[in-house]
Recover the amino acids of this structure.
């Protein structure tokens, strides 16, 4: 494997940087979302990454990429959003394998907050109801959903999230709050990290990056609102950590659909060193450092995982 990746990702000016993206690492598999990565699976992936790649802190990788001095088989590991299991589950595994990672934090959800999509997920997961009627939710028709099985609940969650994802943030929150009330359940307030956990992550040698305040679709915001979201998250984290924060990740992260040139310009103007998208690919020396691609294979078999990583590098060749 190392030889193949060396050919696909040589050192120096022809180097390519693979950036992996994760969100959650669950303690045990989730029957509702069996594809979500859990501790055992993440431990296996970290074993492969340690063996196959030179894993660098993202800021160092960016500097080397720009200078044309990346080592062969260069990789960085990132996490988005700021889930508590990043601290409780992922961090010990990363430390076990002596791997650095960067955690992009949506600051508005620290200390007991909850992302809008998790309100939908946990409402439908936890409701004692076998059927929910979401017609007429704030003037929307989100359908009637039978919830008699894990599969049915997952389908309902995916349909509801798809129906509200690109709404204006305040209206979207009103809608998901109404959904939560209709499901007649109590929601968790410990899904995201606390401020102290973020500090511990940094003390443990991990990097912290900004990810806006409320995780909006930046392409849907005017310039002032987008600037406030990005800058406030940066300043909040800098105050929390007592140091400069130089890395940013666009929420959702698909170019043109989720963020636009305005957001890229703001990331530059606000003093970041680099920013990450979720566009597949690997970065080259001529890549835009403010639109770094990220990609993680979803295969469970070692050979298929490696093959998909290799294909991602191959399609990114210059």
């Amino acid at each position: 494997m190392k030889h193949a990746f060396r050919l696909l990702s040589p050192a120096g000016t022809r180097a390519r940087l693979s950036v992996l993206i994760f969100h959650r690492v669950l303690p045990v598999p989730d029957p509702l979302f069996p594809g979500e990565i859990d501790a055992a699976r993440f431990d296996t992936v970290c074993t492969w990454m340690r063996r196959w790649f030179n894993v660098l802190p993202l800021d160092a990788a960016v500097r080397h990429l720009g200078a044309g001095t990346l080592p062969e088989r260069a990789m960085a590991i990132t996490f988005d959003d700021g889930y508590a299991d990043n601290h409780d589950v992922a961090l010990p595994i990363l430390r076990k394998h002596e791997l650095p990672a960067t955690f992009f934090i949506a600051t508005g959800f620290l200390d007991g907050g909850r992302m809008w999509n998790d309100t939908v997920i946990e409402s439908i997961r936890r409701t004692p109801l076998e059927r929910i009627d979401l017609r007429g939710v704030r003037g929307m028709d989100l359908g009637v959903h039978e919830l008699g099985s894990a599969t049915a609940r997952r389908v309902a969650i995916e349909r509801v999230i798809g129906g509200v994802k690109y709404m204006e943030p305040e209206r979207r929150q009103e809608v998901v709050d109404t959904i939560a009330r209709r499901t007649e359940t109590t929601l968790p307030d410990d899904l995201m990290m606390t401020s102290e956990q973020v500090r511990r992550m940094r003390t443990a040698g991990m990097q912290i990056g900004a990810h806006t305040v409320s995780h909006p679709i930046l392409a849907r915001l005017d310039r002032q609102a987008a600037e406030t979201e990005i800058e406030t998250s940066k300043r909040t984290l800098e105050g929390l950590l007592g140091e400069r924060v130089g890395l940013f990740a666009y929420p959702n992260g698909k170019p043109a659909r989720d963020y636009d040139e305005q957001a890229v310009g703001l990331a530059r103007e606000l003093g970041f060193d680099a920013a990450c998208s979720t566009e597949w690919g690997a970065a080259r020396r001529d890549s835009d450092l403010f639109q770094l691609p990220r990609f993680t294979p979803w295969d469970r078999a070692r050979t298929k995982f490696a093959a998909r990583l290799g294909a991602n590098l191959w399609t990114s060749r210059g």
